[in-house]
Design a protein that fits this description.
- By secondary structure, the protein is of the alpha+beta class.
- The protein has one domain.
- Helix content is 17%, strand content 39%.
- It contains four helices and eleven strands; from the N terminus they run H-E-E-E-E-E-H-E-E-H-E-H-E-E-E.
- The protein has a five-stranded mixed barrel. It has a two-stranded antiparallel sheet with strand order 6-7.
- Strand 9 and strand 10 form a beta hairpin.
- The protein is globular.
- About 10% of the residues have low confidence.
Length: 212
């Protein structure tokens, strides 16, 4: 009886080990994951900041699955610290952008500033608040951070995004887009870093991810 019990334990443990999801490995600093066939903007943001440039005339739309396309509105690159991430699977947007990253650059990525902010993220929004005096002028807080909806261009980029977590420093290169579904549904990116509230998030078709 004991022998059969031990055999059962070994079989159960083996089955659990085979079924357990493999941990997502973080890429080393300086490593770039780039989607095949996804053109990059002509310039990128280096190691800090956000850079937006005009999209080339006549640029083709990106196909997303079999029910939508993404029209490039502008080339975009952001190098920043990750303040928070949220994954989604239960809204319409999750078909295209399965995760959001709240990113900060400039003085807002400093520990001294972030220690004075209470940061949260949910419902496709990113929020921060403080007690007493703000750690930076409020308009600088707005200009130096954003919640970004990320559409991975392929499985390799999706895997790279899955390996990103709070406090990581990354650069994301791609295109601000407007998604158009075949049934008429649309989702459009913000084209400025000075806005806040509904409609202020960047919607990025991600062609490359670099660990900084």
């Amino acid at each position: 009886m004991l022998r059969w019990f031990l055999i059962f334990i070994v079989i159960a443990a083996t089955a659990w080990w085979l079924a357990a999801p493999e941990p997502v490995a973080s890429a080393p600093a300086g490593f770039t994951t780039r989607a095949s066939g996804c053109p990059l903007p002509a310039r990128h943001a280096g190691e800090d900041g956000a850079l937006q440039i005009d999209a080339p005339g006549g640029m083709r739309r990106f196909m997303i699955g079999d029910d939508a396309s993404a029209e490039p509105l502008a080339g975009f690159s952001v190098a920043a610290r990750v303040l928070a991430r949220e994954d989604y699977d239960d809204d319409r947007e999750a078909r295209y952008a399965p995760l959001d990253l709240a990113l900060a650059w400039g003085r807002m990525r400093d520990d001294q500033v972030l220690s004075q902010l209470d940061i949260s993220q949910s419902g496709r929004f990113y929020r921060y608040r403080w007690s007493g005096e703000p750690p930076l002028p409020p308009d600088e807080l707005v200009r130096s951070s954003a919640n970004m909806h990320l559409i991975p261009a392929d499985d390799a980029v999706r895997a790279a995004l899955d390996g990103i977590d709070r406090d990581d420093r990354v650069r994301i290169d791609g295109w601000l887009v407007q998604v158009r579904a075949n049934d008429g549904w649309q989702w459009r990116s913000s084209l400025t870093r000075d806005d806040a509230g509904a409609g202020a998030c960047e919607l990025i078709y991600v062609c490359a991810v670099t660990r900084l």
